[in-house]
Amino acid sequence: MNSKEAPDSSDSMGNGRSQDPRVIAAYEEMARGFEDRDPRDQRTYMISKLNTDYVLMETVDIENRTILNVGCSFPVDELYFARKFARWTAVDASHSSLAASRTIVDRELHPELAGKISFEHADACDLPFEDSTFDVTVSMSTFDHLPSAAARQEAVTEMARTTRPGGFVIVTVANRWCLPYALGIRKMSREKTLHYGYAYLFSPLEIRAIGRRAGLDPIHFASSISPPTVWLPGYPIAVRWSARAVFGLMRLWGYFGRRVGYAFRKPQEDSST
Ligand SMILES: C[S@@+](CC[C@H](N)C(=O)[O-])C[C@H]1O[C@@H](n2cnc3c(N)ncnc32)[C@H](O)[C@@H]1O
What we know:
Helices cover 39% and strands 18% of the residues. The chain is an alpha/beta fold.
């Protein structure tokens, strides 16, 4: 049995506290277009994903691990990492996304790889898994669409609960400090033209604090603005110092990146208690 208390019946799927009906409707609609609009063809999206989500995945090392992906949408990550993980469970609140993703995964992957991936309908705030089920839990650009502060905290707490002690939790979100993006989202929200219904913008420190409140230790920050990973020691000193200065500035600038996130570690259980 998991250690969650019996859920409050008012907190169940789709009541507006853990899901925003406008968001679910928007993603149901989007999933119907998966065959025509493949996010892998969108360069800006992929660069942002590589710099945040995949940097964090590399930090924790997912080789032969069991993974939970909360809010999968199109199966970009499932396809990208399939050769590495032992098992991958993807959950989403959109039935159409799950069905379309299953079709795409079965079409694009060898059955041996596709067989390691399962798709389940579930709410981020009420995950249908026992405590400590997964080595790594990830949620990429999904918690921006949860409709309240309580839901956003609960979703991270659920990831922490279902991750084994010593395992990792990765959360990436949209950044309030990316000012042009934030102004655009605000304008579209005001005018009710936001194509995915609702978006909350986090600050980097806020998502870090949410992880800490869930009992997790932040171990790595990543941003869509990040310096390149280059090996400097062989270069002349003038190049090394100036490159270090530029990379340092880029790291600071990362707090203004459009997508930001953290890898957290779930502490080992204290055997003395
Ligand atoms: C922006 S998409 C995720 C994108 C994807 N993970 C990526 O990295 O590009 C957000 C997804 O969250 C799902 N979602 C929204 N609210 C949810 C909830 N309460 N529980 C589970 N999934 C939810 C939506 O259906 C949608 O598929």
